[in-house]
Design goal:
The protein has helices at about 55-70, 70-75, 80-90, 100-120, 125, 145-160, 185-195, and strands spanning about 5-25, 30-40, 45-55, 135-140, 165, 175, 200-205, 205-210. The protein is an alpha+beta fold. The protein has two domains: about 5-125, 2-Layer Sandwich (Enolase-like, domain 1), CATH 3.30.390.10; about 135-210, no CATH class. The strands form three sheets. The protein has a three-stranded antiparallel beta sheet. The protein has a three-stranded antiparallel beta sheet with strand order 4-6-5, with helices on one face. Strands 7-8 form a two-stranded antiparallel sheet. Helix 1 (about 55-70) packs across helix 4. The longest helix has 22 residues, at about 100-120. It is globular, with a radius of gyration of 19 Å. The relative contact order is 0.11.
Length: about 210
């Protein structure tokens, strides 16, 4: 991406993606996945895309509206997340960069990084000096009882994902892909809690989690 690349278009869409199975959480049951989609076009002819999960349909409209309000601040500006993201954060300093504000800015940041990686023709990990690699993953079954999530566990196992392992040890059974990490997902909270605070991690209610999550 050239140093003179600028943002030329900004498109926001709010969608309620249907879920095959309702997902029951501590905050209620999700019948749909509330997502805000963002496309950012640059004058280099690249379109960066991103999406953010609103957690509840009640926040979908406000999050999409806030993101739409950022259009005038982004279009015509640099298509460089290293410049655009701090500029957006500065505009919300008095309001505080948290909650919906952080989610909206994150959508812009991710779309701009996606555009840079596409222009360079490399995965984003490569653009940042790393390399794509397998990572542990799990299927969270929320607040489901063992009897309720038994069909889900069969369906998930039927996907035949490489390295699939069924933990199957709690009412919130989680399933991991990619082989053993040495720290099953159900223990990650305790493990992270024992780690020293490192860049990219933050404390919250006694635990540490990736600040970009």
């Amino acid at each position: 991406m050239t140093e003179l690349a600028t943002v030329t278009a900004f498109r926001v869409r709010a969608v309620k993606a249907p879920l095959e199975t309702p997902h029951r959480t501590a905050s209620g049951t999700l019948e749909v996945a509330p997502l805000v989609l963002l496309d950012i076009e640059t004058d280099d002819g690249v379109t960066g895309i991103s999406y953010v999960f609103a957690y509840t349909p009640l926040a979908l409209g406000p999050l999409a509206a806030l993101l739409c309000n950022l259009e005038d601040l982004v279009v015509g500006g640099p298509a460089d997340p290293a410049l655009a993201t701090p500029a957006l954060e500065a505009r919300f300093r008095l309001l505080c960069n948290q909650g919906l504000v952080t989610m909206a800015i994150a959508a812009v940041d991710m779309a701009l990084w996606d555009a840079r990686a596409k222009f360079a023709g490399v995965p984003l990990a490569g653009l940042l000096g790393a390399a794509p690699r397998p990572i542990p993953a799990y299927d969270s079954l929320g607040q489901m009882s063992p009897d309720e999530n038994r069909p889900r566990r069969r369906d998930f196992a039927g996907a035949r994902l490489p390295g699939l392992q069924d933990q199957g040890q709690s009412p919130r059974s989680r399933h991991r892909c990619g082989g053993s990490s040495g720290y099953p997902p159900r223990r990650w909270g305790r493990w992270l809690g024992r780690r020293r605070l490192q860049p990219g991690l933050h404390r919250r209610r006694g635990h540490r989690a990736d600040a970009s999550a």
